[in-house]
């Protein structure tokens, strides 16, 4: 009887049904780690010179990379990845933006890279855009998060969660782009802050969200 076609068919149907039910159920696996925290935006002093902008970071960051951004009319943001040298970032006339992000309120839309291989498909002078934003009262500044050039926190989250990802990108209070988290749905795996190269995500040391 255990080998009869009817019994085997019923067993197969039951296994498939249980598998579908498990896939549709919310995934609530919890890890023993703590929740991530988002580091506050970088403080900086802007020194405008005739043909360049010097951005002096106020914290202890002396080297590494950071994004210089400027909002433009029409609901988009331009970004340029720059090195930090002795705590200072320099934007010169002729430095072209690396990417453009669509902004809808506080939400991040699609992005497009303005440089393909060794040439620019769109030429946006970053210094001119910053000066324009300054004159029109639009937001500009620096941000630690390297999105969309870097997606490692999103990739780490997607490698653990099947759906309903708790992490997403948002516009911060100062106009900068930063990651945000949906409370209660983070599995505390720690991949986002372990994989983050810029240190904008760190271990909070807290088990409560």
Automatic annotation (TrEMBL):
Keywords: Signal. It comes from the Bacteria. Residues 177-206 form the 4Fe-4S ferredoxin-type domain. Residues 1-22 form the signal peptide. SUPFAM superfamilies: 4Fe-4S ferredoxins. This is 4Fe-4S ferredoxin, iron-sulfur binding protein. It comes from Anaeromyxobacter dehalogenans (strain 2CP-C).
């Amino acid at each position: 009887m255990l080998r009869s076609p009817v019994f085997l068919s019923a067993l197969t149907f039951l296994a498939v049904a249980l598998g579908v039910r498990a896939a549709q159920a919310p995934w609530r696996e919890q890890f023993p780690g703590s929740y991530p925290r988002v580091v506050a935006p970088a403080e900086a002093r802007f020194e405008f010179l005739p043909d360049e902008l010097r951005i002096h970071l106020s914290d202890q960051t002396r080297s590494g990379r950071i994004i210089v951004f400027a909002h433009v009319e029409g609901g988009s943001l331009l970004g340029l990845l720059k090195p930090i040298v002795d705590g200072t970032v320099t934007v010169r006339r002729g430095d072209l933006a690396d990417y453009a992000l669509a902004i809808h309120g506080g939400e991040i839309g699609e992005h497009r890279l303005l440089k393909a291989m060794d040439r620019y498909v769109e030429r946006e002078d970053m210094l001119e855009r910053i000066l324009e934003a300054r004159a029109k009262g639009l937001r500009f500044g620096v941000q630690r998060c390297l999105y969309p050039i870097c997606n490692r926190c999103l990739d780490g989250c997607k490698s653990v969660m099947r759906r309903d990802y708790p992490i997403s990108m948002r516009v911060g209070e100062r106009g900068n782009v930063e990651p945000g988290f949906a409370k209660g749905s983070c599995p505390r795996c720690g991949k986002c802050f372990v994989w983050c190269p810029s240190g904008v995500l760190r271990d909070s040391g807290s088990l409560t969200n």
